[in-house]
Specification:
It contains four helices and ten strands, in the order E-E-E-H-H-E-E-H-E-H-E-E-E-E. The chain has 192 residues and is α/β, with parallel strands linked by helices. It has a single domain, classed as Dihydrofolate Reductase, subunit A, CATH 3.40.430.
């Protein structure tokens, strides 16, 4: 069975968004979770998809331009993800119809369809987010690994990554990797 790897950037107090709806402590949205060599597909929630598709299409089409989330020119990692990510199949988890411009985007209507995707042959699947989708798929016991980049900031008010989790989930720490700027990449397996 394929692995589902969730990756999220969070504050030290577990927020994936601040009170203003943005994670303004994140300086780049590149794939910093070391998943690129392992994956051949991505899943994300419908609430995140339109902004995600627009952001990465903008970077791919205008790589020298500052973009709306960071206000800066894309990093080398963002340029790489824009190039590679646009080619990967993306699956949007939504019970309502979606609108997608990327031709390799498909809709998944339920967690059962996510489970069926995991049973198909292939490499691991990267769960891009958002927070509710990640928590829901952890609750459904479909996430195999959780990679968190923890930023050395206390966000205060905002959206907590696991606020919508319906049940307790034990994790097994696999690796801790220091990242520039005082950040840490924590990799957890889901305990049985």
């Amino acid at each position: 069975m394929r692995k589902l790897i969730a990756g999220m950037k969070i504050s030290l107090d577990g927020k994936y968004e601040g009170a203003d709806g943005m994670a303004d402590w994140v300086e780049a949205w590149s794939n910093d979770y070391d998943v690129l060599p392992e994956i051949d597909a991505c899943i994300l929630g419908a609430g995140m998809y339109s902004g995600y598709e627009g952001y990465w299409t903008g970077i791919e089409n205008e790589p020298e331009k500052s973009h709306w989330i960071t206000g800066k020119a894309p990093t080398a990692g963002e340029l790489e993800w824009a190039r590679v990510g646009a080619k990967l199949p993306h699956y949007v988890l939504s019970s309502r119809p979606i609108s997608a411009k990327w031709p390799n985007t498909r809709q998944l209507r339920s967690v059962d369809e996510v489970a069926a995707l995991k049973r198909q042959p292939g490499r691991s699947i990267y769960l891009v987010g958002g927070g509710r989708t990640t928590a829901g798929l952890i609750d459904a016991r479909l996430v195999d690994e959780l990679r968190l980049i923890v930023y050395p900031v206390i966000a205060g008010k905002g959206k907590e990554l696991f606020a919508s989790a319906a049940r307790r989930q034990a994790l097994e720490l696999r690796t801790v990797k220091p990242v520039d700027g005082g950040k840490a990449l924590l990799t957890y397996g889901m305990a049985s």
